[in-house]
Amino acid sequence: MKKSIIMLLFSALLLFLIPMYTHAATNQTKIILDGQELILPNDVEVVNVRSNIMIPIRVVAENLKFNVNWDQKTQNVHIQQGSNAISLTVGKDEALVENNTVKLNIAPQMIKNTVFVPIRFVSEEMGLRVSWNNKDKIVTLTSNTLPSPPSNGNGNEAATNLVHEINYANNQLVVQLDHEVTPIITTLKNPERIVVDFPSTDFGNMVQVPSTGSMGRLDTSEFPNVTEIRYSLFKNDPAQVRIVIELNNVSSVNYNQQTNAGKFILDLSMENDPAPTTPVNSGKKIVVIDPGHGGSDPGTTSFTKKHEKHFALALSLKVQALLQQESDIEVIMTRETDIYPTRSERVKLANDLKADVFVSIHGNSVPSAPQVTGTETFYYQRASSKELAKLIHKNLIKAIGLYDRGVKNGNFQVIRETKMPAVLLEVGFLSNKSDEEAMMSETFQNKAAQAIVDGIKEYLKL
After folding, report:
1. Residue from 125, 192, 376, 426 carrying the catalytic annotation
2. CA 269, CA 98: separation in Å to the nearest integer?
3. Contact (CB, 8 A) for 104 and 77
4. Sheet holding 109-111, edge to edge
């Protein structure tokens, strides 16, 4: 009897833990484009969202030689090839295709910092034939018109060229080949990349030849303007070697190419991005307020089915308004509208600004235990963060009167990777009927905002 009860409870727990989307397979799924397997970034797979098979749009579009631009603020991805243009927005079930509105069966999703779209849209609007092998978890994409292999212009189209060495130094990519070949070079944005494709080319007797479906990488640690240089056998039949130079903090790049005795040289000329914008008024304390979640990431859902992201933004804007009245404080928001900056982007903003304080605002939730209530404040290891957490928490408990759940050490990215005193506030439990009713009221939010500001000022000794 006990065993049956335990199994029943275990089964219920498994059902509770099922996420809103699932990977289309336990093992790495595959995308085959025109007979060639695409190399997916780490941790990116085909996903199944509410019975809709979805694929990462950037990977597919770029391999079709579309130019892909991502606008973080609007959560919009713009795909362009010649006069063909497609515009998609995360969380919006409509797309613009050559200025015509197209209804999507499911809105694009942001998953692991990657935009996914339904394969039906890819099929209908990008001119591809699509099939889904559910057993082997393989998406097959076929262009309506397959491009013929480009000529290398030297009369040896039938012969496969071989790459024997790839080096990068002095802003020059140098590729040693059997004989001269003119590669196809494409520049891509967000991030800035240069893609170099060598037609009818395979790897020769290199020291490190990447295995099928994998990538080789050069050591770029000495080159601050280069994030990564990766290379792979992009196609098998005919063979095609691809080298991608991903650039770092570069606003523009120009290049010159030359070939000499089987050696291809790509000479880069780069301009750096301007330094991160810092507050104009020097001498002020910089406070970064981070409304949790946003845009495609709604956060948790409240007792009455409201989204955490709206509560977090409403309270954060009230904190911003109060801090703007302080002459010794410059307040910076990670978001002021319903958009989704990634956690890494929030961290980078605060670190680039060399902020004095970072405060991330959230609402808590335990849907399986709606009786749970109260306020808790998290910090990560640093003594300065713990002090800030104690001061804000003390003021919050006094002002809003919810159950005191204490100050705790928490391993959250936005407080772990920020370099200044940083805290994450779980103001109350949206899954609790009483907490939610209070948290959604203007009176409660005004009290909470003032308490957060008082705690920040007390920490900064203002």
Report:
1. 426
2. 34
3. no
4. 21-23, 47-49, 52-56, 114-118, 109-111
Q: How confident is the model at residue 147 (pLDDT cuts 50, 70, 90)?
A: very low
Mean pLDDT over the full length of the chain: 80
Cα angle 107, 109, 114 (rounded to 5 degrees) comes to 145
Q: How far is Cα 288 from Cα 334, in angstroms, rounded to an integer? A: 7
What is the pLDDT averaged over residues 173-184? 87
Q: Which residue has the higher pLDDT, 448 or 145?
A: 448
Per-position b or e across 273-293, b if 16+ CB within 10 A of its CB = eeeeeeeeeeeebbbbbbbbb
pTM here is 0.45
426 catalytic? Reply is yes
Amino acid of residue 132: W
